Amino acid sequence: LLRFTGDLGMIRAWVSRAIARGIVAAMSIIAGLAVLFYFHPVLGLFTLGILAIATGISLRVGRWQRRAIRMARRRRANLTTNLTEQIHGISTVQALGRLAGEYDRLYRQSARLTRRLVRYSWVRGLLRAIATGMSWIAVVGVLAIGAYYFDAGRITIGTIVAAILVTRMMMRPIRSLGMANEYWQNGRVSRQKVLTFLRQPYREAHGVKLPALRVRKGQIEFRNMSLNGSLKDINAQIQPRQLVAVMGPNGSGKTSLLSVVARINDPTEGDVLVDGQVLSNVSLRSCARHISLMSNELPLLRGSLRRNLLYRWREAPDSELERVIDLCGVREVLSGLPEGLESKITEGGTNLSAGYAARVALARAMVGNPRILLLDEPTLNLDNATKRIFHEALLHYGGTVLLTTHDPDEAAIADEVWELEDGRLVRVVPGKSFRESTARPVVLPPWTRAGSG
């Protein structure tokens, strides 16, 4: 947001300062040239030639300025990204003894940024020096030409003085044009960045009214769906109440597939449909009501255990809270907390074991029985007892499940196994319908029922 606002400021400076002042400067220069041509054609031609040379040099140097701006922006982005990462990961840096190394890295990035900014300032100074220098060359040239024609008796001393005064008056407009060129180069880079941002896939903006997603069955369909850099031309369908396991090597696009169903990202091509509705055409809030995601990248929040469990549905009744506590094995977590549901959870759930934090995260995702449940490596590095709790919870869940995993035993319980490779769905392996006899009816909370929006 800060970068986007800065780019808009650059464009505003080009429009409000450079364009208006440039037009006035250009009119002044044209008027001055007309006067010089009136005094003597040679004076006008000489000044016009100097201006043409100055313009050509300025445009050439302007390319260097654009390049310097881009490189400085890139260096600044690298520095701020690394700094933000180190602030959030300071415990990792300290625990592994990398403070000195990270300081050195920040110093090197800062030094590279400084060099780029100095180069950018040098180019700006060069542009201004060109405008000022060419103005003085024009004055000296007019004086020399006037002296030559005065000796020849073809021009008067009064005309020479008037020509020099007109040329001196043109110096300020010439410098203004040089400044306009500087603003123009900055504005061109910023305009490109703004247009790149605006051309990104549409995301719902505040105040935009989109229809609500209505989910009755929980069918998911991918139609020629692609996501830049992650997924390519996915065509597949998940039937209501199916459990589909997605497998593949790291970087194959498993997490990206879940992100487009959860509407963390919208497809760059094609569509994702839920019960025949295109997800990108419905409101984000209604998607979150019917589609729930559990991922290691969605950690627990700082606050009470109750707050974390009820984060999807803050007004959930006590009966719903007790249901997910029993279903997801959170009762064992509560037994070890002196204040029960009011016990404080640190940011990321670091004061809980990995298994206990995973149970709480699963319960948070299942509050309200969402019709579609997305699980991203839910049992990665967990003990067998926690894995059994996860599998039992899925057995008693009556909605549609899309699960990413590397565990063959976990994939074996799925109705279908999808294999991804390099972002493409290369194979669909049918499994067993294991929940038909054990699935319980889905009880929807009030805010997920039809007509609630």
Compact description:
This protein is α/β, with parallel strands linked by helices. It contains 13 helices and 12 strands.
What does this protein look like?
The two termini are 30 Å apart. The longest helix has 53 residues, at 99-151. Helix 2 packs antiparallel against helix 4 and helix 4 packs antiparallel against helix 5. The protein is an alpha/beta fold. The radius of gyration is 34 Å and the shape is elongated. Helix content is 56%, strand content 13%. A hairpin with a 3-residue loop joins strand 1 (220-227) and strand 2. The strands form 3 sheets. A 6-stranded mixed sheet has the order 6-9-10-3-11-12, with helices on both faces. A 4-stranded antiparallel sheet has the order 2-1-4-5, with helices on one face. The protein has a two-stranded antiparallel sheet with strand order 7-8. It has 13 helices and 12 strands.
Using only C-alpha atoms, the radius of gyration works out to: 34 Å
- Total number of β-strand segments? 12
Helix content: 55-70%
Instruction: Tell me the β content.
Output: 5-15%
